[in-house]
Amino acid sequence: MRGNDEGRMVRLTLSNAVDQTQKILVEVPAGTSVAQAARDAGIAPQGSFDVFTPGGEAVTQASVDQHRDAVLYVGPQKVAGGAEEFILEPEPGVEVADGPPVGPKTVVFVSAYDSTVRHRSSTRRGSWSVTGSPLS
Is 3.10.20.90 the CATH classification of the domain at 7-76? Predict the structure, then answer.
């Protein structure tokens, strides 16, 4: 901590990211990490966790000084995605169209309660319509 920060307190609101009815207004010494403020307030879960801004940015290791009077969300640790490019390849022997389907599309809905009840739905001019009575 810097010498003149010792007497300053920073106020912020910590909220549980999963249950947002749980909010705690805290005042912590300037220079404290956001993670330590969450631990001290008792809102941090056991084990690994992260603290997020309302925009979803993880600020767990940041200083509370950067988030004065803010609402921050404490929740499960952010899982980083891979940096490699993901390419979806069809299974061998499966033909795949080069582009999006052209023309009307048809879907058959099957009842979850009675598998013999089916309805056909198709597109017409960009919108869906259910046609006919149940199919047998």
Answer: yes
